Amino acid sequence: NNTVQQWSDYYDGYGDYWGVHDMNTITLSIPGNHDYGNAGAKAQEWNDYSGQRYFGFSYGETRLLTLDPYLGSDYPHQQVDALNTYLADKGPGDLRIISTHDYGNLDVGFLNDNQVQVGLHGHHHNNFTTDVGTYTKSYTTGSTSHLWDGVGIGNLGWFRILTVENGVVVK
Predict the structure, then answer these.
(1) Which of 7, 29, 33, 144 has its CA 20 to 30 A from that of 52?
(2) pLDDT higher than threshold 80 for residue 55
(3) 128-132 vs 136-140, strand pairing mode
(4) Calpha distance 130→78 (Å, rounded)
(5) pLDDT value for 165
(6) What is residue 12's three-state secondary structure?
(7) Is the pTM of this model over 0.85?
(8) Any residues with CB less than 8 A from the CB of 150 and at least 6 apart, and which?
(9) In this structure, which long-range contacts are made by residues 135-139, counting pairs with CB atoms below 8 Å and at least 24 apart in sequence?
(10) What residues contact 20, with CB distance under 8 A and at least 6 apart?
């Protein structure tokens, strides 16, 4: 099955390309516009192979939140409700980070209500920083795919490393 092979390549690698299991670090996957199609079937496929499409988790006093505005009809209401419940249960923490594929699809009311400080995104295939809502500084990174611009052969392409001190991104 082609779908099974694609997920296997993603996790275990293909040829000279690393899979996420080879990265020796925590890796979170979130769906994006290339995962979109038959939304109901794609949402189920994502859940089957990669786990929950939206979630929150804590690392010390940091709250990492993810949203999926592409798959299914549960965005934004059910997803935002689930994250609001998560924050109510775990507390707001000192630093709140949201991750979605594209900052343009964020629920700005949710960001403002929860004073989310940092957004992490892809989609635009270049590095830039922008403000979203009142509190959120969003960071977008370049492509990590070997398919874009003929680069990334033998590795995972570009990454942005952000340094956080006392709940603030300093570089």
Answers:
(1) 144
(2) yes
(3) antiparallel
(4) 26
(5) 81
(6) helix
(7) no
(8) none
(9) 135/111, 136/98, 136/106, 136/111, 137/169, 138/103, 138/106, 139/169
(10) 10, 11, 27, 29
